[in-house]
Amino acid sequence: MEIDVKGRIIASDSSQQRSMICLSDLPTGALTHVSSFLAAPSRALFAAALNSRDVDSSSAIAGDDWEYLDFGHIEKDLAAKLSDEDVRDVLLSIDAVNNLRSLWLTNCVNITGVGLDPLRGSRIIQQIDLSLVGDHESSKLDPEPTNSCVEVVPILDSIIERGEECSLEYLQLPKYWRKERNTESDFQLSSPVTMII
Questions:
Q1: Among 97, 100, 150, 158, which is least packed, fewest CB within 10 Å?
Q2: pLDDT given at position 138
């Protein structure tokens, strides 16, 4: 069996040639049209999954209406399986540092927080909810998620330390961080941020 560089089977034996069309082989316009029927987080995941394309194609597929991203708008089981790499790829595909104003990591219980790095130094992010739970859900998570102050605090510091350029107004931290360390004292709040633990 022969396989090409994109992982497609091009021949099952020496006498029979078969070709397979991959989703990534379709024109960007067709993929953009298909993605327009998806919920926003699903559209961003779709664009990130097609990361073999150039940045302009990924941006076209993801779209440009990215002021708000809530992973609670995708299936809970899928959000729970997302890794830091997945979250990072989504944030990169939507150019989050320049577009995203509100981020909710609802149900993303499998991340450490390192995937939030594309937000580093953002001047426009206004709301970040790291509580990992949806509205009207208990803040007690069992088992406790893997996200960590050690990974997330430096990213948040890079946003908050922008001083007057900082747009962050609302920051919801996971309740279980209280056990990890005194998170509230880790920030030099140079802007009027409402922080909820």
A1: 150
A2: 58
Structure-block tokens of residue 59: 């941006």
Rounded Cα distance, 72 and 87, in Å: 13
Token pair in block for residue 75: 């299936």
Residues 133-148 pLDDT 10s: 766 565 666 666 666 7
CA-nearest of 75, 118, 73 to 93 is: 118
Per-residue pLDDT, averaged over 72-79, amounts to: 91
Q: What is the DSSP string of 128-186?
A: EE-S---TT--S--SSPP---HHHHHHHHHHHHTTGGG----EEE--TTHHHH--GGGG
HEC-encoded secondary structure of 141-153: CCCCCCCCHHHHH
How many Å apart are CA 68 and CA 119, to the nearest integer? 13
